[in-house]
């Protein structure tokens, strides 16, 4: 049995979405829904009860709505593995924003864990990640847990 090092400190509020995150999500939502045949009249980031949301107004035919609903339901019920099962040996979990992710980090995604091979900026607070073993790039728009090689952490020495 191996012991793991203590987890790195994650500042409070790191997981809170920003206005840039909401704007990037609105753009992705518009593109994805247009590709499905949804006519959007308005998509804007807003604040509701102190939380950032993306407000959407548009039209969709019933057949498209049924297909979208079925797809979303299948995603919601897809079994996922616990993060600890996906963690590659010699790595530690770390919560990072898109600008904090590094080449060489491992990204848990869709029940698997992919090593980040390359990346480039997309817009504002997002990154396009090229992942080893995954054909299509993946766009990171908000904070995510990644696994970083343990030798890249610096822990304070006990006094």
Give structural notes.
The chain is α+β, with helices and mostly antiparallel strands and 159 residues long. The chain is built from three helices and eight strands; from the N terminus they run αββααββββββ. It has helices spanning 19-35, 62-76, 83-86, and strands spanning 39-48, 51-59, 91-96, 106-109, 112-121, 127-131, 138-140, 144-149. Strands 4-5-6-7 form a four-stranded antiparallel beta sheet, with no helix packed on it. Strands 1-2 form a two-stranded antiparallel ribbon. It has a two-stranded antiparallel sheet with strand order 3-8. A hairpin with a 6-residue loop joins strand 6 and strand 7. The longest helix has 17 residues, at 19-35. The protein is globular, with a radius of gyration of 18 Å. The mean pLDDT is 77.
Question: SSE layout and pairings?
Answer:
Elements: H1 19-35, E1 39-48, E2 51-59, H2 62-76, H3 83-86, E3 91-96, E4 106-109, E5 112-121, E6 127-131, E7 138-140, E8 144-149
Number of helical elements:
3
Percent of residues in helices: 10-25%
Structural class: alpha+beta
- What is the terminal separation in angstroms? 27 Å
Strand order of the largest sheet: 4-5-6-7
Mean pLDDT: 77
Radius of gyration: 18 Å
Strand content: 25-35%
* Low-confidence region ranges: none
Largest sheet properties:
4 strands, antiparallel
């Amino acid at each position: 049995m191996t012991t793991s090092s203590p987890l790195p400190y994650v500042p409070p509020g790191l997981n809170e979405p920003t206005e840039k995150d909401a704007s990037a999500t609105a753009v992705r939502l518009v593109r994805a829904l247009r590709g499905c045949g949804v006519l959007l009249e308005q998509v804007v980031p807003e604040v509701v009860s102190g939380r950032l949301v993306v407000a959407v107004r548009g039209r969709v035919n019933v057949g498209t709505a049924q297909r979208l609903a079925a797809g979303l339901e299948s995603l919601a019920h897809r079994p996922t593995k616990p993060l600890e099962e996906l963690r590659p040996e010699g790595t530690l979990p770390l919560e990072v924003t898109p600008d904090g992710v590094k080449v060489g980090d491992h990204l848990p995604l869709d029940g698997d864990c992919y090593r980040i091979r390359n990346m480039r900026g997309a817009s504002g607070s997002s990154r396009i990640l090229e992942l080893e073993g995954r054909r299509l790039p993946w766009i990171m728009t908000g904070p995510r847990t990644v696994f970083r090689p343990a030798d890249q952490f610096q822990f304070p020495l006990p006094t």
